[in-house]
Write a structure and sequence with these properties.
The chain is mainly alpha-helical and about 210 residues long. Helices cover about 75% and strands about 5% of the residues. The longest helix has 30 residues.
């Protein structure tokens, strides 16, 4: 009986992510989470008083930020991960249609065509990658204070602080979107999604 029940269920699942893609996402998310939490402990007075040990928090923040690109660099050894980066980096006419529909708040299925990744995911991936590199560069300028003029350090601090706030807001939106889509979260957790979800949310995707 179990075989008869499970077989149709398994047949409706589609492989979306392999172990490397899931590992990169989880590890990057964990490092980003550490960066955000430690940054909050450094800049919010109430949290700073609660946590204390500022020097330790600073070191954890610095090293987690420095390690942030490592999962992606390691993931480049995987052909499947490189293929997904190619999908994320490639915009087509259907992505412009998706973005226009999103701006109009048009939720009809036909108005939001998407391949493996929709246009919103592509924009987010490009933005967070660029922002992370800027944070890494400005963070290094702030870390190695003896290597740069004071004007550079002042400018780096300004950019680092305000971009950190922007990243926090964007990450909150990203998490909110994920919470609203259990099947997308299941795809990142288990590697597979339902066929019905794939056809509805990513009709142009051909696994």
């Amino acid at each position: 009986m179990n075989l008869r029940v499970d077989a149709p269920t398994a047949a409706t699942r589609i492989r979306r992510f392999g172990p490397v893609q899931r590992w990169v996402h989880r590890t990057t998310a964990a490092l980003m989470g550490v960066c955000v939490v430690t940054a909050a402990c450094l800049y919010v007075p109430q949290l700073a008083e609660l946590v204390g040990r500022r020097e330790l928090v600073v070191r954890v923040h610095e090293w987690s930020g420095l390690a942030l690109p490592v999962p992606v660099l390691v993931g480049l050894a995987s052909r499947a991960f490189r293929a997904d980066l190619g999908f994320l980096n490639r915009f087509g006419p259907h992505d412009r249609v998706w973005l226009r529909a999103a701006l109009r708040r048009d939720k009809r299925r036909a108005s939001r065509p998407a391949g493996k990744f929709n246009a919103g995911q592509k924009v987010y991936a490009a933005w967070i990658a660029g922002a992370s590199l800027v944070m890494l560069g400005t963070g290094l300028l702030m870390w190695f204070t003896h290597l740069t003029p004071i004007q550079w350090r002042t400018s780096a601090t300004f950019v680092h602080d305000w971009l950190a706030l922007t990243i926090g807001i964007v990450l909150a939106g990203h998490i909110g979107m994920a919470l609203g889509d259990p099947e997308a979260r299941r795809g990142l957790r288990t590697g597979s999604v339902s066929k019905e979800w794939a056809e509805r949310e990513h009709p142009l995707w051909r696994p």
